[in-house]
Amino acid sequence: MSDRSLTRAEAEGRAALLTVDRYDLEVDLRGLLEGERWSSVATISFQCHEPGASTFVDAAGVVRRATLNGVALDPAEVAEGRLPLRDLAADNVLVVAMDTDETADGQGILRTVDTDGLVYVWSSFEPDEARRAWACFDQPDLKAPHAFTVHAPTAWTVTSCTAPDSVVDAEDGGRTWRFADTPPLSTYVVVVNAGPFHEIRAQRDGYDLGLYSRQSIRAVLERDAEDLFRVTAQGLAFFGERFGSPFPQARYDQVFVPNLGGAMENWGCVTYGDGILPRSEPTPDDRSWVAVFVLHEMAHMWFGDLVTMRWWDDLWLNEAFASFASTWAMANATEFTDAWATFLIAEKLVAYDEDMSPATHPIRSEVPDVAHATANFDGITYYKGQAVLRQLVEYVGEPAFVAGLQAYFARHAYANTVLADLVGAVAEASGRDLDAWTVDWLDRTGADTLSLGGGELVGTAPDGGLPRPHRLDVGCFSWSGDRLERLARVPVELSGDRVAVTLPQADLHLLNDGDLTYAAVRTDPASTRTLLASAGALPDALSRAVAVGTAWDLLVRGEAAATDVAGCLLDVLEKEDSPAVVEPFLDRAFALVERWLPSAAQPEVRARLADVAARVAERPGLRGSALRTVAGAAAGDAHRALLDAAASDDTDLAWRLLARRAELGEPVDDAVAALLDRDPDPEARFRALAVRASAPAEAGKAEAWTALLVDREVPAGGAVREVSSRFWRPGQQELLLPWAHRWFDQVAAMPPGGLLSTMSLVRMTYPPIGDDAVLARAREAAAADGVPAPVRSMLVMGADRLARMLRARSA
Ligand SMILES: [Zn+2]
After folding, report:
1. pLDDT tens digits for 59-79?
2. Is 297 a catalytic site residue?
3. Long-range pairs for 521-525: beta carbons < 8 A, 24 or more residues apart
């Protein structure tokens, strides 16, 4: 029998009835060294405000025994993951002993046997998986202190939310770890990880910082430890100051674990999928990506953990806020000062893309039960949400925003809130009424279009109503030698559908300079020509990113030819020196060549891109970033020589070069075997798989297909993306068309479990190649019966994107 999903009404009823005083959790991991058994005894002390009433506790495992106030309960009464509790007293003590052997699928718990035979275990409970690990009232607004006692094999290290108070040998084998009480926390932000971790600690500004990884990548953790400690300390200082309250606990651990998709903001003990740590020398973009993760999860310590949404309908806000805060901290407190430019090219353009598809949805929506909590985890939730919060900061001014935040955290620490609490605090601090603003930005879909012409800025909305209120800047640039210089940045506020703007005469009026608002922008025709031809002459990374973003929007809406947009990107790359955008620009240029250009234009533009990237590689600090693109686009002997030289001490580049060689039909089996031998990365075999998948041959395609979509053994995240992108090579259309048809059959047959991982798999492996028949199949698949709604929305977005790519290619 499957476990029932808690409804909103049930959660409200239980929250009104109960106050949880504390959880004392005894967890036994000794059954995981050789087997699959996770055991727990939960002792829950709680009050009932209507003595005599009934409720239930969540217990989605095998309940061995249970007592309520000393009276035995019948484990046979557990149904659909719930144990009924009847005739409650005012003060109650519930004890539930529970086991689970389901530790292999990552639903709450994952046990991994590494390539060296060592065993690691992590837990990750959002939104309602804590009930699989121990009995609990698994909803965000029943917060309580948690105290953990963990029995683990002797050689293991255990990490949890707080520092261990004691570690002693257990009489019946192994060791027993006792952790200090947590503050009152929601059930989904606590954690127990264990294994023979490599541990590095440092003291920074009064914080006791810890880093952990599995032994097989300890060299990688050692290499990046200083970077990680630095950005962690910078983030703790920045957030502590801006939020008006320092993180209240000295201990802050970060644990890098195998095969976790993304990361999880457990209080004081963040877990990350260790795929985010690059296995070769990191590029600036790799380092920036890790820093964003660190700061995103850290922002959740305040926004999510300290103050928590009452119900999952505000989960979007939790994520949008953490994403906003991470870029805000990057730009203000770290070396990554161009982080807003990175955000625009690498992430915000994804939000625009999804927001123009028929599967778009408002940022906020109803969440009737927990099963729907993560249904909208996509670019709209994270990146549009982040962009809208950035617009809010501009709309009220940063000082008022900060004052509102500080009041919010002070008022609601260790409690739960709804969106109106945050909006109200910011409105109060700024003196601006935000009610209409909130409805406009959160409940309407699509991006407004803002057009400049005839002395006016005119806004239109995709739903035919008035555009949203926008606060933006227009940058005015004129030629000075071969550079475009900013003469002025003119602030504009649009409320209603038009506003008069007085701009100085200029060669380029860049609409949304500084990227403050979320909109499709159309500047005047002369400026558009300058923007497409000469964006590289703009003076800073963010203005160049706004130009590229504008050009990209013209491409995807069919208003500019792919060759013109390629010209814009190549012009920027010829001069680009900001490490924050070089790799995002190169990636976008490469995607443009592979997916959007008419095939007749591909060879020439691909070769030009490889040439430009080879020149970028000469610039200080950009070599690693640029050589990745050279490897993907390599067209001739000169590129090959450059790569051969560089790949001898860079395994990442060596894999990329091998993939390119395989794609071109060269035999690479011996080289793959040799590289596997010298690459210490425990996941190297998936890179070998990706190389074989690149070859224009059925065998490699079939092997990758099985690993990716049938056995699903490719680790979530970057490895899936890599294998998939090697599989779908644009020059192999004839070979791949039958596979594209097969992909839709495969997805239709996927088991429904593990929705988040299915969504991400569908998104990352969606066929980017096709013809009219594939497109018809794509539309049919998106409309088929029986597809879970979130997967359907990935299918609709994929079909819409494919249609736009095919249109651009045939232009
Ligand atoms: Zn998050």
Report:
1. 999 999 999 999 999 999 999
2. yes
3. 521/449, 521/450, 521/451, 521/452, 521/550, 521/553, 522/449, 522/450, 522/451, 522/452, 523/451, 523/452, 523/550, 524/452, 524/453
